[in-house]
Amino acid sequence: MLRDVARGALMSVVDAKVFKALADENRLAIVRMVGACGEVCACDLLSGLKISQPTLSHHMKVLCDCGLVRCRREGRWCHYSIDAGAAAKLAGFFSELATPSVHGDRCSCSGCGAGE
Fold it and tell me: What is the pLDDT of residues 100-109, one digit of tens each?
């Protein structure tokens, strides 16, 4: 498991799953489409991507399992949306990376001495 320096605790496996899910260019494109539209039917995702239905199903399972995307069933169709809480958590992670701590309270390296 990875050390979450910003909080001084271990990152959960779920956090690592989000990054792993986003490492695939098709899933990243899917997340961008879903994020831009708010909620998207699987049929609309298929028309916007050059992948098969089974491949889309696999990608959506990965994105739902990591918690980044939610699925709402309506009859035989699945409608997907971004989980706002997961997106906020991810945004907060990157925001903390871009904002160094003034007092070094988040630093855990031994080289700078701030984490001692």
Answer: 665 556 666 6
Which pLDDT tens digit goes with each residue over 39-51?
A: 999 999 998 898 9
What is the DSSP secondary-structure string of 56-109? Answer: HHHHHHHHHHTTSEEEEEETTEEEEEE-HHHHHHHHHHHHHHHS--SS-TT---
86-91: long-range contacts, CB 8 A cutoff, minimum separation 24: 86/18, 87/35, 89/15, 90/18
C-alpha to C-alpha distance for 44 and 58, rounded to whole angstroms: 16
d(CA 75, CA 110): 57
Fold adopted by 3-84:
Arc Repressor Mutant, subunit A (1.10.10)
pLDDT at 107: 64
Closest CA to 66 of 111, 10, 9, 22: 22
Q: Tokens 């489409």 correspond to what residue?
A: 33
Q: What is the pTM of this model?
A: 0.76
